Amino acid sequence: MLKKLRTIIYHVSDIAVAKDWYRKATGIDPYFDEPFYAGFDINGYELGLDPDTLSVVPGNQTVSYWAVDDTDAAAKKLAAIGGHLVQPGTNVGGEIFVAIVGDPFGNHIGLIEGA
Predict the structure, then answer these.
(1) Burial of 72 by CB count in 10 Å (0-12 exposed, 13-18 middle, 19+ buried)?
(2) CA-based, 20 to 30 A from 17: which of 24, 38, 106, 113?
(3) Could you give phi then psi for residue 103, rounded to 5 degrees?
(4) Where are the domains of the chain?
(5) What is the CA radius of gyration of the chain?
(6) Strands 96-102 and 7-11
(7) pLDDT for 28-75, tens place per residue?
(8) Residue 114: φ, ψ to 5°
(9) Is 44 left (phi over 0), alpha (psi -120 to 50) or beta?
């Protein structure tokens, strides 16, 4: 049935502004760049931006976690470019830390270190 996570899609109200924000967040350009969708290849996983918000209920319903070397540093970087801290770095067991940052478009970005 389920094999692995492949794509995360964030719904955004302004795809041009969102592409610029995610370029700053990831340090890469989208490999697929159209008015209806932008896709970033993050080490073999897709981060997609979808400007179609007609069927989307406002507010974040899920959180997907991206592996990072340092949750605090990653959260600070995202906050510095216009994100906001939702959950500060938190130890969730052993050497695993998580944090959550909200992007300017209402999505929550999970960060996980040590997993």
Answers:
(1) middle
(2) 113
(3) -85, 170
(4) 7-113
(5) 14
(6) unpaired
(7) 999 999 999 999 999 999 999 999 888 777 666 678 899 999 999 999
(8) 85, 10
(9) left
pLDDT of residue 2: 58
Tokens of 115: 């997993």
Phi, psi (deg, nearest 5) at residue 113: -125, 135
What's the rounded Cα separation, in Å, for the pair 71 and 62? Answer: 19
Q: 38 phi and psi, to 5 degrees? A: -130, 135
Cα dihedral across residues 4, 48, 106, 74: positive or negative: positive
Looking at domain 7-113, what is its CATH homologous superfamily? 2,3-Dihydroxybiphenyl 1,2-Dioxygenase, domain 1 (3.10.180.10)
How do strand 64-67 and strand 108-113 relate by DSSP bridges? parallel
Joined together, the tokens standing for residue 5 give 């996570």
- For residue 57, the model assigns a pLDDT of 73
